[in-house]
Design goal:
Shape: globular
Number of strands: 2
Order of helices and strands: HHHEHHHHHHHHHHHHE
Number of domains: 2
Helix content: over 70%
CATH class of the largest domain: Mainly Alpha
Strand order of the largest sheet: 1-2
CATH superfamily of the largest domain: MFS general substrate transporter like domains
Number of helices: 15
Structural class: mainly alpha
Oligomer: single chain
Largest sheet: 2 strands, parallel
Length: 366
């Protein structure tokens, strides 16, 4: 699963870059429709699990409160300081709404017969540590590496397709380390050392990425991406293994999905946070290098590498230098988060690895 994730997370930007270069950008979204239909058909045709059905009470209220609360919180991080002032009525209202909705979600989960996120899981030390680590991992890594294609296109000057291809070293690091660590865990039953080493390596990779500038070559940037990818591959799937190994069988599904949820949530917050960091640093750097270039908008620069390449040299060079400084600032901010995740994972207990699957050939209840 980790290998497929690694391949798709690079294949997506690569295909997306090709589409942007050769078709209309809207096809970045349309292309998912046939892929989704194909996946649904394949699942319906080939996925055969022995089941015995029984009635469940779906926690619709909990799901709605969670989505609404998280959405309000994300809007605070995305709009605060950009669309609206932090002390504006809109941001204050969203913050209050997020607090109220998430409080109601916790109350709902405490009384629901089958909660969407059982609160009992938070009494499990491994679940709490892996969920927190996954959130920080998503925030630090996915929130910062989302700007790598921008650096490659705007600073180094490659095309969108080429920038997607240049993310292959990141994928190679994830792919290789996740496969190797998975096989060794299967052979020896020990798993804690891999996320510890992985987060340390990832912190080094983020630091190295923060040192890039306009003179950084593709070879050096690729090497830095391999280091970061290696750390991510040693960490992401092992967190899932750890929590699957620590919870009761009836909580296996929700515990596994919660890991993906917290990691994705961290990535969403990280993208907003580092986007704000990059935008602020870019505005400051531009003001220092081009005090009279008020007509050049920060949003225009981060959203259009083609606009940067079309600028005259007198403007283009300072703009590229400012953008390089702004993008690498996001990596600098990400380093302490990676270190915090490393400090957190050290306290994760390492339990004996289960040696049998939870799904047999006999029917199981759903």
């Amino acid at each position: 699963m980790g290998s497929v994730f690694a391949a798709s997370s690079v294949g997506g930007p690569l295909i997306g870059g090709f589409i942007v270069d050769n078709l209309d950008w809207r096809w970045v979204f349309f292309v998912n429709l046939p892929i989704g239909i194909l996946a649904m058909a394949a699942t319906a045709r080939f996925l055969r699990l022995p089941v015995q059905r029984r009635e469940h009470k779906i926690d619709y209220a909990g799901a709605a409160l969670l989505v609404a609360g998280v959405t309000a919180l994300l809007l605070v991080t995305v709009w605060g300081g950009s669309e609206y002032e932090w002390g504006s009525p809109q941001i204050i209202a969203l913050s209050v709404a997020a607090a109220v909705l998430l409080t109601l979600f916790v109350f709902q989960e405490s009384r629901a017969p089958e909660p969407i996120l059982p609160l009992r899981l938070f009494r499990n030390r491994t679940f709490v540590i892996t969920s927190t680590t996954g959130f920080i991992l998503g925030l630090a890594m996915f929130g910062s590496i989302v700007f790598l294609p921008l650096f490659l296109q705007a600073v180094i000057g490659v095309t969108p397709t080429h920038s997607g291809l240049l993310l292959v070293p990141l994928m190679a690091g994830i792919l290789t380390s996740s496969i190797i660590s998975g096989r060794r865990i299967s052979a020896y039953g020990r798993y804690k050392k891999y996320p510890v080493a992985g987060l340390a390596i990832a912190a080094v990779g983020l630091f190295l990425l923060s040192t890039m500038d306009t003179g950084t070559s593709l070879v050096i940037s690729s090497l830095y991406m391999v280091i970061l990818g290696t750390g991510m591959g040693l960490t992401m799937q092992v967190l899932v293994i750890a929590v699957q190994n620590a919870v009761e069988v009836h909580d296996l599904g929700v515990a596994t999905s919660s890991q993906a949820f917290f990691r994705s949530l961290g990535g969403s917050f990280g993208t907003a946070l580092f986007g704000a960091v990059m935008g602020s640093r870019l505005a400051t750097a531009l003001a220092g290098r081009l005090p009279d270039a008020g007509s050049i908008g920060v949003g225009d620069l981060t959203g259009s590498p083609e606009m940067i390449r079309a600028l005259p040299d007198a403007l283009r060079i300072p703009v590229i230098e400012s953008l390089a400084e702004a993008v690498t600032a996001s990596f600098t901010v990400a380093v302490p988060f990676a270190v915090a995740a490393l400090a957190m994972i050290v306290f994760m207990p390492e339990l004996p690895l289960r040696d049998q699957a939870h799904v047999s050939s006999a029917p199981v209840e759903l």
